[in-house]
Amino acid sequence: MTVLRARGLGKAYRGRPALEGCELDIPAGHVTGLVGPNGAGKSTLLNLAAGLLEPSTGTIEVCGGVPGSGPEQLAKVGFVAQNAPVYPTLTVDEHLRLGAKLNPRWDAALAAERIGRIGLDPAQRAGRLSAGHRAQLALTLGIAKRPELLLLDEPVAALDPLARREFLRDLMAAVAEHGLSVVLSSHLVSDLERVCDHLVVLVGGRVRLAGELDELLATHHRLTGPRRDVGTLPADQEVISASHTERQTTVLVRTEAPVLDPVWTVGKPGLEDLVLAYLGAPARPVLRVVR
Which of 70, 151, 210, 250 is 20 to 30 A distant from 118 in Cα terms? Predict the structure, then answer.
C-alpha cells in the first residue's frame, strides 16, 4: 500500500520551481527519511502533502485522497512544520484541549503522559516556553492526533541530544504500536539512520534517489584502487561519484551484480556516505528500488 503518491508533481513560486516533475511512491508502514540541501524542495513537498499548498503541475495523493480535501482527509494526516508552530497565548493544557476538540482520534492519555514526562507545566503559556519545549509541545500534538501519516519537517532541530533521543524513541513506539507511517525531514543523518527504513533524496526540486534503505545500501559499493578512468567500468556499474589522487581512484557505484575485478578493494558505504554522494552527483533520472 502506498501512503503518498506523486505524479509529475511540481510547485513554482513566482515562476521559480521549488519542485519539478516529482515521481514518488512512499509505502505505508515505513519511516521515510527525506533528505536534501536547503532549497531542495523538502518543505514544499511536505506542505503539499499536508494540503497547505496546491500543486502547480501534476498530482499528489495522500492516504488514498487529495490532501486537505475535507475533514476526513485532514484527520488522516498529522503535520509538524519546521518552526513548530503553537499558539503563544494559549497554555499547554489549552493546546491539549483544543487538540481533543479538533481531532476525532485524539489520544488524551498519550498527550498527558508525554507532557508530564517532558516536564511541561500545563498552566504555562506556549509563548513563554523555550524553543525546545515549544517543539516538544508541537510534536506531542502531532503524535496524539493518531494520524495514519505523520509529516515532520525538521522536528528535532531545536531539541538537545537527550530530547531528540526521547522523541525518536516515542516515534518508533507509535510506529510499532499503531502502524503509523512517517515522513521525517532532517539534516541529521545520524538520527535518520537510527529510525528510518526508507529514504528519499531531493536535490534541486527533483527526486534523486528513493527506496528501502537496506536495499539501497546493499546495491551501492565503494571501490578503491589504482588510478583509472571510470569510463572503463562495466556498463552495469553506474558511477554515482568519483574522486582521484595522483595514484588512487575511489568510486561509488550502484549495481545489482557482484564486483569481480580484483584490482578494486570493495567496501560498503554508510548512510551518510550515500546521501553525500547523491547530493553532489550530477542530475540524473530518479533511481528507485522496486520490490
Answer: 151
Question: Which is higher by pLDDT, 49 or 133?
Answer: 49
Q: Biggest alpha carbon distance in the chain?
A: 68
DSSP 8-state assignment for residue 10: E
Burial readout 98-113 (b: 16 or more C-beta within 10 A, e: otherwise): ebeeebeebbeebbee
Residue 231's contacts (CB-CB under 8 Å, 6 or more residues apart) are: none
CATH fold of 2-212: Rossmann fold (3.40.50)
Distance CA 97, CA 204 (A): 41
Please state the pTM of the whole predicted model: 0.89
State how far the Cα of 121 lies from the Cα of 137, in Å rounded to an integer.
11
Domain coordinates in residue numbering, the chain: 2-212, 219-284
Written as nine digits, the cell of 252 is 561509488
The pLDDT value given to residue 159: 79
CA distances from 262 to 88, 158, 242 (A): 63, 48, 19
**Percent of the chain with pLDDT strictly greater than 70:** 96
